[in-house]
Amino acid sequence: MTEAGFVHRFDPAKEPGAPTLLLLHGTGGDENDLLPLGRMLDERAALLSPRGKVLENGMPRFFRRLSMGVFDEEDLVNRTHELASFVEEAASEYGLDPKRLFAVGFSNGANIAASLLLLHPGLLAGAVLLRAMTPFELETLPDLTETPVYLAAGRSDQMIPPESTERLAELLREAGAEVTLDWQPGGHGIGRAEVEAARAWLAGVITR
């Protein structure tokens, strides 16, 4: 346990000025789960990968859910604030540039990454959200002007209703984010095509 009580992995950047990828795993993953994906997205990047602190039938998650697709929103909000504190402390500890910090989340990790965007605008420079849902509705949207977000969804995904992904894209756009919504033909798993698309997207926003 270190910053904010999160078990995590940190792999330093391979060269000066490279971005940092905040890797947020899906249900049942851990701090090692998305390291290979991080390297596929940017082999130069620093990788910061925490383990979710909630257990569901022994499987790590970042926040509780009441049933499949139904989130415990109070817990989600509290866990989002806790994760934001971890990111801020880790950035200070490891000397990371917050202007070059991008979240990469899958499923449960993508959902809390979306929550970070909405509740802590400015914490992230952008995000890659793989199989994300709308985390909650807000009465007042944050200012996410020009924040780039790549949102990949599967047309055959039986775990995420397509309207929930569409609503998330709509919320982020209403907040001013630059959203790329990429519908893939597959299901809930991550396919090679979207990894390559996310890599190209990330390279483009980093060099802007």
Any key phrases for this structure?
5 helices, two-stranded antiparallel sheet, seven-stranded mixed β-sheet, Rossmann fold, alpha/beta, globular, 208 residues, 11 strands
Element pattern in H and E? EEHEEEEEHEHEEHEH
Shape: globular
Strand order of the largest sheet: 1-3-2-8-9-10-11
Helical content (DSSP H or I, runs of 4+):
25-40%
User: In terms of quaternary structure, what is this?
Assistant: single chain
At the fourth level of CATH, the homologous superfamily is: Alpha/Beta hydrolase fold, catalytic domain
What value does the average pLDDT take? Answer: 94
Q: Radius of gyration, rounded?
A: 15 Å
Unreliable runs, pLDDT <50, ≥5 residues?
none
Summarize the structure.
By secondary structure, this protein is of the alpha/beta class.
Structural commentary:
There is one protein chain. By secondary structure, the protein is an alpha/beta fold. The protein has one domain (3-206): Alpha/Beta hydrolase fold, catalytic domain (Rossmann fold). Helix content is 33%, strand content 24%. The strands form three sheets. It has a seven-stranded mixed β-sheet with strand order 1-3-2-8-9-10-11, with helices on both faces. Strand 6 and strand 7 form a beta hairpin. Helix 2 (73-94) crosses helix 3. The model has no long low-confidence stretch (mean pLDDT 94).
Task: Show the helix and strand layout.
Blueprint: E1 8-11, E2 20-24, H1 35-41, E3 46-50, E4 54-56, E5 59-61, E6 65-67, E7 70-71, H2 73-94, E8 101-106, H3 108-119, E9 126-130, E10 148-154, H4 162-174, E11 178-184, H5 192-206
Parallel strand pairs: 2-3, 2-8, 8-9, 9-10, 10-11
Antiparallel strand pairs: 1-3, 4-5, 6-7
